[in-house]
């Protein structure tokens, strides 16, 4: 009896422990759906898409591909026969299962067991979507099980229509082409809505085995598979037998085309500008300015780079100011001139009325994403800086006229004693002639009278990105800077002369929109006064005299509304001319990437180049 009582007590204690355990476990109980939802994470799906660049005529001139070349379309845009064709050959019971076709799985399991290898997949459309989005293409049972679990979750979260839309946009069509719409443009150079039944079936044939059915290398295989697609469609009753026969008789003509990539000089710059636009609009620029050390700046820059890639991968539409005719002329003239001279160069054309960059040239033999000399090459501006840093500030501060005189005698300031290029060392000239003939001693004398700090304050409006405190020295009056400025920066600054002394930055991007036309980014600059209109009017006359009788007279352009300024650096390592007419401001720079003397060139090479471009602007 004692043994019995001891046994009962122990049994009762164990029973109570068991009950307590059940109660505790019940608190953590999950249904199958809950367990799958916790283990299989399916967040909002973001497919990488192509982004598009448009010129001023709303024509696409460049397509920015990401990791996958994809033109995404909504379900409503997918032709019904495309859906029917995929259902016929890939998953005829798509609307009946919940992600997995059990019957097909059993059949595949038996076939694979007999073969002792994975020979049959039995993947539904949902499973293929799961594989394309979340998994890889390993031929293992572990991957297959994951595919099943993801498929179940996809069916719980998305409608059948959503899954079909994802499938049509993610399936691979060989040769780097993803999605049916992309394939339609790539292989037939037209949208899917314009495809014939034969062409639809031909494309639907490819994804079953993209390498085996590659239309460019194995078109015979593709045509055999096309026949199977059409027969399956006829068997299901989605097309009539005579439609099938007619489609089989149609001859397939492939017109394989790579994504549009015209005007790489302009397209490359637009991508640079887009990153700057994102940086400003989303606060990265202000974060960089507040960063306390290099490590922090690098981290912010990495975040900006990731954000930039995200925006491009989202499939944005970038509307620009590109003028195709001007850009083509600029490219042709520049390539010919620079190749003949064996020299590098950069140029920019700005519509100063609208503050739009209409054309840009990044260098001789430029390839997309190369070093862009128009926007990335910082060079000494030479005397081209004089109207902005010397004459404009002096005349505005001192209320001087172009007829006032200045000495061109030798001068030394803080040990800096420049000479005049012409060798002239005595006398005085009007301010107009001092600029027209680019007397260096006069420039140093004028900036000294204005004051370095005051003169440099006028450059703030132009936002030159690499002017530093060390630049506030007398050599700057002749273009001697630590880094200098880019051809695009200097050309943009010269638009002030065509806007009554008011300045507004010039951009290539007008708007960035999503696929639905919603504006995501756009510039919103305002005009900023630099100097008085009276000062500007006098400067325009003086710059016209540079062309009429001064250092640019060899161009032989006799027009009162054409003006500009030459620039030459020490040992002739850089040659500049920035000028304008009624509509456009055009800047050119000649040099070598590793600065060397250009004395082997004609002394007026930069002026000849500018003049050639100028006559194409009319």
TrEMBL record:
Catalytic activity as recorded in UniProt: Preferential cleavage: (Ac)2-L-Lys-D-Ala-|-D-Ala. Also transpeptidation of peptidyl-alanyl moieties that are N-acyl substituents of D-alanine; [GlcNAc-(1->4)-Mur2Ac(oyl-L-Ala-gamma-D-Glu-L-Lys-D-Ala-D-Ala)](n)-di-trans,octa-cis-undecaprenyl diphosphate + beta-D-GlcNAc-(1->4)-Mur2Ac(oyl-L-Ala-gamma-D-Glu-L-Lys-D-Ala-D-Ala)-di-trans,octa-cis-undecaprenyl diphosphate = [GlcNAc-(1->4)-Mur2Ac(oyl-L-Ala-gamma-D-Glu-L-Lys-D-Ala-D-Ala)](n+1)-di-trans,octa-cis-undecaprenyl diphosphate + di-trans,octa-cis-undecaprenyl diphosphate + H(+)
Gene3D superfamilies recorded: Biosynthetic peptidoglycan transglycosylase-like, DD-peptidase/beta-lactamase superfamily
Highest taxon, organism lineage: Bacteria
Residues forming coiled coils: 274-306
Subcellular localization(s) per the UniProt record: Cell membrane
Pfam family, one: Transpeptidase
Signal peptide: none
Ranges where the Penicillin-binding protein transpeptidase domain occurs: 345-582
Residue ranges crossing the lipid bilayer per the database entry: 5-23
GO MF, one annotated term: glycosyltransferase activity
EC numbers: 2.4.-.-
Keywords: Carboxypeptidase, Cell membrane, Cell shape, Cell wall biogenesis/degradation, Coiled coil, Glycosyltransferase, Hydrolase, Membrane, Multifunctional enzyme, Peptidoglycan synthesis, Protease, Transferase, Transmembrane, Transmembrane helix
SUPFAM superfamilies registered for this protein in UniProt: beta-lactamase/transpeptidase-like, Lysozyme-like
Identification of the protein by name: Transglycosylase domain-containing protein
């Amino acid at each position: 009896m004692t043994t019995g009582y001891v046994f009962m007590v122990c049994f009762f204690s164990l029973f109570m422990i068991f009950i307590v355990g059940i109660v505790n476990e019940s608190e953590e109980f999950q249904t199958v759906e809950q367990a799958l939802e916790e283990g299989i994470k399916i967040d909002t799906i973001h497919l990488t898409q192509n982004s598009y660049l448009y010129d001023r005529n709303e024509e696409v001139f460049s397509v920015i591909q990401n990791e996958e070349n994809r033109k995404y379309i909504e379900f409503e845009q997918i032709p019904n026969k495309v859906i029917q064709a995929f259902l016929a050959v890939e998953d005829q019971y798509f609307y009946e299962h919940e992600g997995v076709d059990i019957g097909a799985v059993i059949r595949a399991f038996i076939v694979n067991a007999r073969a002792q290898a994975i020979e049959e997949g039995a993947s539904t459309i949902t499973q293929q979507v799961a594989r394309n989005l979340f998994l890889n293409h390993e031929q293992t049972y572990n991957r297959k099980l994951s595919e099943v679990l993801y498929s179940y979750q996809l069916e719980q979260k998305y409608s059948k229509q959503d899954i079909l839309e994802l499938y049509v946009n993610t399936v691979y069509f060989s040769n780097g082409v993803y999605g049916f719409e992309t394939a339609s443009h790539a292989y037939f150079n037209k949208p899917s809505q314009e495809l014939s039944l034969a062409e639809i079936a031909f494309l639907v044939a490819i994804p079953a085995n993209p390498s085996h059915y590659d239309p460019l290398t194995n078109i015979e295989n593709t045509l055999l598979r096309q026949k199977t697609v059409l027969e399956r469609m006829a068997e299901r009753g989605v097309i009539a037998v005579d439609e099938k026969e007619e489609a089989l008789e149609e001859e397939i003509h492939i017109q394989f085309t790579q994504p549009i990539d015209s005007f790489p000089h302009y397209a490359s710059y637009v991508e640079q500008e887009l990153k700057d636009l994102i940086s400003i609009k989303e606060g990265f620029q202000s974060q960089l300015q507040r960063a306390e050390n290099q490590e922090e700046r690098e981290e912010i820059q990495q975040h900006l780079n990731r954000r930039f890639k995200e925006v491009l991968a989202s499939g944005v539409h970038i509307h620009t100011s590109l003028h195709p005719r001007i850009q083509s002329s600029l490219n042709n003239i520049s390539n010919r001139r620079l190749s003949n001279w064996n020299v590098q160069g950069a140029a920019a054309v700005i519509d100063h009325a609208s503050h739009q960059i209409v054309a840009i040239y990044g260098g001789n033999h430029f390839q997309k994403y190369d070093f862009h000399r128009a926007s990335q090459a910082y060079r000494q501006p030479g005397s081209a800086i004089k109207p902005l840093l010397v004459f404009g500030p002096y005349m505005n501060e001192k209320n001087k006229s172009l007829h006032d005189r200045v000495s061109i005698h030798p001068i030394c300031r803080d040990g800096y004693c420049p000479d005049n290029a012409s060798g002239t060392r005595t006398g005085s000239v009007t301010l107009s002639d001092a600029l027209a003939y680019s007397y260096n001693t006069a420039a140093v004398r004028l900036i000294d009278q204005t004051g370095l700090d005051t003169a440099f304050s006028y450059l703030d409006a132009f936002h030159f990105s690499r002017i530093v405190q060390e630049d506030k020295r007398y050599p700057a009056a002749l273009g001697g800077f630590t880094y200098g400025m880019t051809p695009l920066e200097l050309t943009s600054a010269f638009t002030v002369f065509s806007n009554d002394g008011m300045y507004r930055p010039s951009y290539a991007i007008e708007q960035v929109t999503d696929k639905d036309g919603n504006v995501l980014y756009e510039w919103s600059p305002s005009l900023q006064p630099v100097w008085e209109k009276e000062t500007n009017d006098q400067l325009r006359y003086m710059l016209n005299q540079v062309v009429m009788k001064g250092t640019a007279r060899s161009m032989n352009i006799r027009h009162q509304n054409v003006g500009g300024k030459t620039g030459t650096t020490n040992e002739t390592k850089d040659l500049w001319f920035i000028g304008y007419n009624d509509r456009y401001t055009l800047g050119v720079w000649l040099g070598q990437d590793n600065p060397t003397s250009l004395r082997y060139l004609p002394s007026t090479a930069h002026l000849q180049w500018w003049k050639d471009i100028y006559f194409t602007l009319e």
